[in-house]
Write a structure and sequence with these properties.
208 residues; mainly alpha; 3% strand; globular
Length: 208
């Protein structure tokens, strides 16, 4: 989705979208669409947003129409894309300087690109669920490189930015979460972090 060629980005996004709406790919692949926030072509960003809306709608409808799906919420509930998105953005090759103003602004836009679609409706108090999820993600180490301080710092900074976005976009997020989110241990391990990395405010985006 970040290829220099417009046609390549378009074809890849369309194939990814079709596989996701048919539930042929795991939920984590949906996280890739967060990178579309950096696409320089406005039409591509708009198309990616429509893909997200469609995928999220299909997953919610599938859960509502299939009682047995409630046993597989971790793999179906759209909100569970957030841990994968955070891990993906923490390892984005463009994210090299965690305290750089421009990179933090790009990071914020990628997070909001996904979170805005997830937060269109506060279904079943989902805003509080998202806040609780990100708070939980901000405590473990990065399972991909648990002993790398730089990698863990980037993971925690992405979480701090995500919390900033959620809190600034929803007053309902401060309510009690309806359930405790289950985190994918494939990308996270060992609850240890209690440090807040972004003390100062974040750069405002076009939506603020």
């Amino acid at each position: 989705l970040q290829d220099e060629c417009y046609q390549v980005r378009q074809i890849f996004a369309q194939k990814l979208h079709l596989a996701l709406v048919k539930l042929l790919l795991p939920l984590e692949y949906l996280a890739v669409f967060s990178l579309c926030a950096k696409d320089p072509v406005k039409e591509r960003r708009a198309h990616a947003r429509q893909c997200l809306l469609k995928n999220i709608s299909i997953r919610r409808e599938f859960i509502n129409n299939n009682p047995l799906a409630h046993d597989k919420l971790v793999s179906l509930l759209p909100e569970y894309v957030v841990p994968y998105m955070i891990h993906l953005l923490a390892h984005d090759p463009d994210f090299t300087k965690p305290q750089d103003f421009e990179q933090l602004r790009d990071l914020k836009e990628c997070l909001w690109f996904m979170l805005e679609v997830l937060m269109v409706q506060n279904e079943n108090n989902s805003h509080a669920f998202l806040r609780k999820m990100v708070e939980n993600i901000s405590r473990p180490k990065d399972a991909q490189c648990p002993d790398d301080p730089k990698a863990n710092e980037k993971l925690y900074i992405v979480c701090d930015v995500a919390l900033f976005v959620i809190v600034n976009k929803s007053t309902a997020c401060h309510l009690e979460s309806p359930k405790d989110p289950v985190l994918p241990m494939v990308s996270l391990q060992d609850l240890i972090n209690d440090k807040e990395y972004l003390i100062s405010g974040l750069p405002p985006g076009p939506d603020q």
